Protein: SIS domain-containing protein
Organism: bioreactor metagenome
Amino acid sequence: MELKLPQLVYDQMKTYKALYAEELPAIMKKEPAFDDDSYIKHLQTVYVIGDGDSLYAAKAVEYVFRAISGIDYRPVPAFEFTKYTIDGFSAEKAASSLLIGLSASGGSPFVVDAMKKYKDYYPNSHVLSICGKVGGEIEKQATEIFSVQILELGRTPGIRTYAASMVGLLAIACEVAEKRSFKGAYSRGDIIQFLEASSEGIEQTLSETLGQGKEIINLLDDSFIAFVGSGPSHGTALFEAAKFVETSGIYSFGQDLEEWNHVEGFAYPLASMLVIHLNPGAAYRRAETLAISASKLGHKIVVVVPEELEATELGDACVVTYGPYDDLLSPLTQYIPFTLLAAVVAENYGRAMFLTDTQIWSRL
């Protein structure tokens, strides 16, 4: 397998200002996805299926999708949907549902299989593909297609495409709301404005995060990492953990912050790193108390905060995202610092991404 070095992450991060100023807003401005939209008025549930980054993108925008569209929204792993979820459907339920197959590559096998099986069971069902590659296999299984293809800059652990997938889902949420004449919490213009404003803070976020690389490496001390957050930040935590695994080879996992308190909080080593999303919003107080109690146990606490909380004294280190902040929209930017830090850590240990510096790599 071709050697994948962490420099690829640095190279792609250099494009992030333009990504948020131009490419992502362009996705929000695309032509409508639905040709026959008569069923949208009767739509009750949206199911989004994906694997890995696509699933985490779907999870990250779960709350804002509902807030925009007013529709029940359920992200489901593609394999789980194929083997379990689909058995709970009926023709009546399928008629009031929209299945979205999400794939950055355009060919995720279990997403393709799930879409095909769903259409075989319910030939008149509505199936949308959100695809990062035009002409991908999932498009062949869809009744409607929405492309989130952006400039291809080489394979990395799916960072630009992750952002595009999230924004693609928000574009669909806005279209659903518009066709239902539903006034949600955010309009299409609100999302575009947030993305463009975020582009102004990205370079500062990247610069200051790079400056903290050595501090994070010292705190890590070759242990594993737990990333925790609640609500929108839970999806972000899942993605951050995936990037740390794929980029640096360090075992990491994402968890809901209260679930970590219930279970993993009782696990050794007590000096392991715990990354907590400490965001103004509904989960702030619980995140704050968790940071304090986990620190007393001996964990190395790193808090991820928006600019307005950069003066916080909680934690052993504080990583800041600069630019506008909104609780439900926070997944659009808060994954950035630790995606970059994963490359910093990998470079420090002399590791390549995806274990491509080993001779034993194979996909299970």
The first strand starts at residue 45 and ends at 50. The chain has two domains: 31-180, 202-355.
